């Protein structure tokens, strides 16, 4: 099994800088930032990480948080984008091969539409 990952509890977010609100990290990384385990929730095997992974100039993985809003005309409604990465811990190649991406996307689309109907 891989390293257990944690995220800040929803109720604890108001006490910390926004940069920690969407972070998912190993316990020692939270401790390095002086955030105790009692304020964290363990993430499940499948979790959504904000942004996407990319390689930096040293060929090491670096995260990039991407979102934005734009409008063609001033004071008009525009469009936004949010980029996420679906991460699955401890998945076998056999399980990986069984993932039906179009069906998964359909299910995620339903959840996203429900969320945005309530804004």
What does this molecule look like?
By secondary structure, the protein is of the alpha+beta class. The chain has helices at residues 27-32, 93-98, 101-117; strands at residues 5-8, 24-26, 40-42, 46-50, 52-55, 61-64, 67-70, 79-82, 84-88. Strands 2-1-3 form a three-stranded antiparallel beta sheet. It has a two-stranded antiparallel ribbon with strand order 4-9. A two-stranded antiparallel sheet has the order 5-6. The model has no long low-confidence stretch (mean pLDDT 86).
Distance between the termini: 38 Å
Q: Uncertain spans, ≥5 residues at pLDDT below 50?
A: none
Residues in helices, as a percent range: 10-25%
Radius of gyration: 17 Å
Strand arrangement in the largest pleated sheet: 2-1-3
Short description:
Helices cover 24% and strands 30% of the residues. It is of the alpha+beta class and 119 residues long.
Topology:
Blueprint: E1 5-8, E2 24-26, H1 27-32, E3 40-42, E4 46-50, E5 52-55, E6 61-64, E7 67-70, E8 79-82, E9 84-88, H2 93-98, H3 101-117
Antiparallel strand pairs: 1-2, 1-3, 4-9, 5-6, 7-8
Notable traits:
single chain, 119 residues, alpha+beta, two-stranded antiparallel ribbon, 3 helices, 9 strands, 24% helix, globular
